[in-house]
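Database export, one record per block. Field names are fixed; values are copied verbatim from the stored entry.
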Amino acid sequence: MSRLTLEQRRAQDAWDQSTGYTKDHVNIAKSLPALIMNSGLMQVLAFCHEKGGANDLVASQLRTWLVKRSNGDGARDPGFEGFMQDLMKASPADYQAITAEAFAWLRWLRQMAPARVKGD
């Protein structure tokens, strides 16, 4: 079996994470890249945490992916506070790389999420 490319792993993860999504989740997935572009990753993660519900779920899935990319496939979501602490300690280059990876994963989630929603 061939090794999956990074794009294939992003696509697979986005597909897996969007299982059971509703239209609310889809709308959040579609809006996050623009929010991050305008406000920044940490600000958007804080916003999603504060909003709770579907917002916090999608943010948690994004955090989990970002941790997997940096720590390996077995990594888990460190939670909102732990992840935010790590971002605050990150070098500017690392923070930029994490943000770029967030955009790359969200590109897939934006496409996969609507395909998983039943009963349009």
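Remark 1: The two ends are 36 Å apart (CA to CA).
Remark 2: The CA atoms of residues 85 and 106 lie 22 Å apart.
End of record.
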